[in-house]
TrEMBL record:
<dbReference type="InterPro" id="IPR016152">
    <property type="entry name" value="PTrfase/Anion_transptr"/>
</dbReference>
<keyword id="KW-0762">Sugar transport</keyword>
<dbReference type="InterPro" id="IPR051541">
    <property type="entry name" value="PTS_SugarTrans_NitroReg"/>
</dbReference>
<protein>
    <submittedName>
        <fullName>PTS glucose transporter subunit IIA</fullName>
    </submittedName>
</protein>
<dbReference type="InterPro" id="IPR002178">
    <property type="entry name" value="PTS_EIIA_type-2_dom"/>
</dbReference>
<feature type="domain" description="PTS EIIA type-2">
    <location>
        <begin position="7"/>
        <end position="151"/>
    </location>
</feature>
<keyword id="KW-0813">Transport</keyword>
<dbReference type="Pfam" id="PF00359">
    <property type="entry name" value="PTS_EIIA_2"/>
</dbReference>
């Protein structure tokens, strides 16, 4: 089980400059960061389920954040990609602008870990100061450091 959200982050799976301004194109842009990930067994299958989930109900959380996600047999372990847009992405299905997107794939067989990760994400993102630091990080490494610092503040240094 993943103890910390930061353990899922990899600089190569973070883009701080989403180019697309529309929801589906932006989700594709961020999800593509997971194409070739060792825990994604079928990227196209994963991506199709990601879009199907997004069609069911919006993944916008408010505060310019969305968590497009899919529980699928196309991933072996939880995978995460992050995208940020300074201009914002139009999520027309909820009439919101999203500037920070976390694309999450989880195995169907492990709902507990999925719920723990989404819960941790929501707890980190509800704090305005965390959102501000995440939006101002200038590199993927800085973004990860900001997540680690936020986790330590929220969950304690020794929490694993």
């Amino acid at each position: 089980m993943i103890g910390r959200l930061s353990q899922l982050l990899d600089p190569s799976r973070i883009t701080l400059s989403i180019k697309s301004a529309r929801r589906t194109a932006a989700i594709n842009e961020v999800a593509r960061l997971l194409d070739g990930h060792p825990n994604v067994t079928n990227f196209q299958g994963f991506y199709n389920e990601l879009l199907a989930r997004e069609r069911l109900d919006t993944t916008c959380l408010g505060n310019e954040i969305a968590i497009p996600h899919a529980r699928t047999e196309h991933v072996q372990k939880i995978v995460l990609a992050v995208g940020r847009s300074d201009k914002g992405v139009v999520f027309e299905n909820c009439n919101q602008i999203v500037k920070l997107m976390f694309v999450l794939g989880t195995p169907k067989t492990n709902p507990g870990t999925y719920l723990a990760i989404v819960s941790a994400l929501c707890r980190l993102l509800k704090e305005p100061e965390n959102r501000e630091v995440f939006m101002s990080a200038s590199t993927p490494q800085e973004f990860i450091q900001a997540v680690v610092a936020a986790e330590e503040k929220l969950f304690g240094v020794d929490a694993k």
